[in-house]
Design a protein that fits this description.
With 349 residues, this protein is α+β, with helices and mostly antiparallel strands. The protein has a domain of 178 residues: Transferase(Phosphotransferase) domain 1 (Transferase(Phosphotransferase), domain 1, Orthogonal Bundle). It is 28% helix and 15% strand. The strands form three sheets. It has a six-stranded antiparallel β-sheet, with helices on one face. A three-stranded antiparallel β-sheet has the order 6-7-8. A hairpin with a 3-residue loop joins strand 4 and strand 5. Helix 5 runs antiparallel to helix 7. The longest helix is centred in the middle third of the chain and has 20 residues. It holds the Pfam family Pkinase_C. InterPro entries: AGC-kinase_C, Kinase-like_dom_sf, Pkinase_C, Prot_kinase_dom, Protein_kinase_ATP_BS, Ser/Thr_kinase_AS. Keywords: ATP-binding, Kinase, Nucleotide-binding, Phosphoprotein, Serine/threonine-protein kinase, Transferase. One of its GO terms (molecular function) is protein serine/threonine kinase activity.
C-alpha cells in the first residue's frame, strides 16, 4: 500500500477522500469505504461524533489511543487520525473480507480445523492487547474481520479500556449481553479475564452455530450465564470440548490463561511462534474480491445507505450495553471542542 500522507505537510480533511460506501453504522458515527483522492488508495474511514457523555468520550479517546499504540498482525491498523470540533476521523486499513459473523451466518457452524485457525489468531490478538495493558470487552463475531487473504483482525475498540495494567480491576458495566462474563453480570470488579470468557462464547458459537446462553429476556440470559448448564453437541471432539470448558470457567481464579490455552492438545498443530510473526497457513475461507472497492462481503443494510456524513442511530441491533445496562443506541450530540493538539500519522508509512 502506498504512503497515506504522500509526504505533504498540509492538514488532512474529509475532503481528501471520496466516500464510496457505508460499511457500518453505530451509535455515534459511521464507517465508510473511502478512496484517498491523491493516491487512489482505498481505506476504511471511521467518522465518530464527539459525544456529550463523559463516559462515552472516555471510551472514544481510549479507542484512539489503542489504535495509535497497539500494533499486531491481528489488530486492525490505523494509518492516520484527524478531527474537527464535532467529529474524529480514523483512517483504518480496509478489511475487505467482512465480518466473521457473515461466515457463521452462511456456514451455520465451522469445522474444528476452521475454528482452531480463527481462535488461535484471536487468542494472539487478545494476548497482544493484554500485554499492552488493554482489556477488549467486546469480542464478538461482528468485531472479528477478515482481510483480503482470509486472516482475521480484531476491530472496534469503542468499549475497550486503555492503560489497564494486568492485575488491575475495573467495574464499568459494558459489552454485548450474550458475551458478558459472570463477574460482569454480578456487577463486581473484573480484570482482563472477561475477554477469555468471551473467547469461549465465540468458540462455542463457531462450533455449535449459536451462543451457549440464550433466552427470551436479558434476565433469563443473565441467569443462564451465571449458573446454566452448557450443552455440547456430540460432534465436538473431547479436545475441543476441553478448551471451551476451560474458557467458560465461571470461577475467575480457575479460568484458563491465554498462555496456558496455547499449550492445550487442541492447538498442538499450531506453530505459535510462526503465527506471531504473521506467517499464516492457508485460511479456511479466502474472500472472493473483484476489485479494491468490492463490498460484497459487507451487509447490504449498510452498503445500500447513501455515503454521507450525518448523526445516526444503529441500523442493526447488536445488544451493546454500557454503564447502566441500557442499550446504547441514541445520538447524543457534540462537544464542539478539539481533543488533540495535532494530527497523528502512522510512522510505518
Amino acid at each position: 500500500m502506498m504512503p497515506l500522507l504522500n509526504n505533504t505537510p498540509s492538514r488532512m480533511t474529509v475532503d481528501d477522500f471520496l466516500l464510496l460506501k457505508v460499511l457500518g453504522k453505530g451509535a455515534y458515527g459511521k464507517v465508510f469505504q473511502a478512496r484517498k483522492k491523491d493516491t487512489n488508495q482505498v481505506y476504511a474511514l471511521k467518522v465518530v461524533g464527539k459525544p456529550d457523555s463523559e463516559l462515552e468520550s472516555t471510551h472514544l479517546k481510549d479507542e484512539i489511543r489503542i489504535l495509535e499504540n497497539v500494533k499486531s498482525p491481528f489488530i486492525c491498523q490505523m494509518f492516520h487520525r484527524f478531527e474537527t470540533k464535532q467529529s474524529v476521523y480514523m483512517v483504518l486499513e480496509l478489511l475487505s473480507g467482512g465480518e466473521l459473523f457473515n461466515i457463521l451466518n452462511r456456514e451455520k457452524s465451522l469445522t474444528e480445523d476452521a475454528t482452531r485457525y480463527y481462535v488461535a489468531q484471536i487468542a494472539l490478538g487478545l494476548e497482544h492487547l493484554h500485554n499492552q495493558n488493554v482489556v477488549y470487552r467486546d469480542l464478538k463475531a461482528i468485531n472479528v474481520m477478515l482481510g483480503r487473504c482470509g486472516n482475521i483482525k480484531l476491530t472496534d475498540f469503542g468499549l475497550s479500556k486503555f492503560n489497564f495494567i494486568k492485575g488491575s480491576k475495573t467495574s464499568t458495566f459494558c459489552g454485548t449481553y450474550e458475551g458478558m462474563a459472570p463477574e460482569l453480570m454480578r456487577r463486581v470488579p473484573y480484570d482482563h479475564s472477561v475477554d477469555i470468557w468471551a473467547l469461549g462464547i465465540l468458540m462455542y458459537d463457531m462450533m455449535c452455530g449459536g451462543p451457549p446462553f440464550t433466552g427470551d429476556s436479558k434476565e433469563e440470559i443473565k441467569t443462564k450465564i451465571q449458573c446454566g448448564v452448557i450443552k455440547y453437541p456430540k460432534k465436538l471432539s473431547s479436545q475441543c470440548k476441553t478448551v471451551i470448558k476451560a474458557l467458560l470457567t465461571r470461577n475467575v481464579q480457575k479460568r484458563i490463561t491465554l498462555a496456558n490455552l496455547k499449550t492445550m492438545d487442541f492447538f498442538r498443530s499450531i506453530n505459535w511462534e510462526k503465527l506471531e510473526e504473521g506467517k499464516f497457513d492457508s485460511p479456511p475461507f479466502i474472500p472472493e474480491l473483484k476489485s479494491d472497492d468490492d463490498v460484497s462481503h459487507f451487509d447490504t443494510c449498510f452498503t445500500d445507505l447513501p455515503p454521507i456524513e450525518s448523526p445516526c442511530k444503529k441500523v442493526r441491533e447488536d445488544n451493546d450495553c454500557c454503564a447502566d445496562g441500557k442499550v446504547d443506541d441514541a445520538f447524543d450530540g457534540f462537544e464542539g471542542t478539539n481533543w488533540f493538539t495535532s494530527e497523528w500519522n502512522s510512522n510505518t508509512f
